[in-house]
Amino acid sequence: MSEAVVWIKPLSLRCLLESGENGAVMTTLRRSPKPGDIALCIQRNDMNRTIYLCGPINGRTTEDATSWRETVKQRWNGGYLDPMRRDYRGRELEPGIAAEIVAGDIEDIQASDAILVFFDKPSVGTSMEVFYAKHVLGKPVVIIDASDKPLSPWLIHHSDHQTKHVSVALATLNMIFNRRDEA
Hints:
By secondary structure, this protein is an alpha/beta fold. Helix content is 40%, strand content 23%. A hairpin with a 6-residue loop joins strand 2 and strand 3. The longest helix is centred in the last third of the chain and has 17 residues, at 166-182.
């Protein structure tokens, strides 16, 4: 994990946090020797962490299934497990394919440090993965809520954080990892 100290104007702080540049996490604020400035200590902890990119695939276009995942891959400096590498769309009803899909997803969830969920509308597979990751394995689960409707109480209960923004989701994962490393 690396740390950098950046002196910024207080108004710049909101912009920096909203941009979530590369998953940086603000850990402390200090007053600067220059009046009006503050020190922002940024810690990055994503380099050695793997996240599972959980979200709907079945019945989705390639764009719907991959665009948010590609955004995360560009911003996350750690590892990721993307179930789209096993794209079974159109073959789900072939003999044995359902078992392959579920087994591969379970293996990825077990191998990950946390689950990043994209939720825009209900998905059976996504919900099952969230429940398995959180309830069975105790993994951190962070939700990117792209829906225009309230989240299900079940989804809220089985997640550590919900946000509308990828950058906030990645920063939250880093914060969760930092807290676990300090414990």
